């Protein structure tokens, strides 16, 4: 039986605390299998900062905490604002605030349009419900719970 999807991020905290925190938010590899994409699984991995989390594995033993992302940035980028919505990805108009950035214009917003320039992630538009579910699952509910557990 599967344990289910991972939390959005994991904090690997050492016993000693310092003034430095290493952050690897884009090395996550989990991408739900039920999401229909135009990109192949290997192409989806191109959006990662591959293996940065593994490079940082020794840091907690040296007294440096490490925060690593677990979900693929191609699914939802936890380093983007909730309003960084690319409406060209959607079947309908986004019901909330939209403040796209220059990254959004390049297809690299909260929900990415491209794995890398020229390689589309989705063959069809996403529903507002799909994007809302991603935000609720990763950015809001699990993220808040993960933060509360670490305090």
Describe it for me?
The chain is α+β, with helices and mostly antiparallel strands and 151 residues long. It has helices at residues 41-45, 52-55, 102-105, 128-150; strands at residues 9-12, 22-24, 66-69, 114-116, 119-120. A three-stranded mixed beta sheet has the order 1-3-2, covered by helices on one side. β4 and β5 form a beta hairpin. The radius of gyration is 16 Å and the shape is globular. The relative contact order is 0.20.
Q: How many individual helices?
A: 4
Order of helices and strands: EEHHEHEEH
% residues in beta strands: 5-15%
Q: Tell me the structural class.
A: alpha+beta
User: How would you describe the shape?
Assistant: globular
Strand order in the largest sheet: 1-3-2
- Calculate the terminal CA-CA distance, rounded to whole Å: 30 Å
Q: What does the average pLDDT come to? A: 87
- Report the C-alpha radius of gyration, rounded: 16 Å
Largest sheet: 3 strands, mixed
Helix residue percentage = 10-25%
Low-confidence parts: none
Q: Give me the count of strands.
A: 5
TL;DR of this structure?
With 151 residues, this protein is an alpha+beta fold. It is 24% helix and 11% strand.
Secondary-structure blueprint of this entry?
Blueprint: E1 9-12, E2 22-24, H1 41-45, H2 52-55, E3 66-69, H3 102-105, E4 114-116, E5 119-120, H4 128-150
Parallel strand pairs: 2-3
Antiparallel strand pairs: 1-3, 4-5
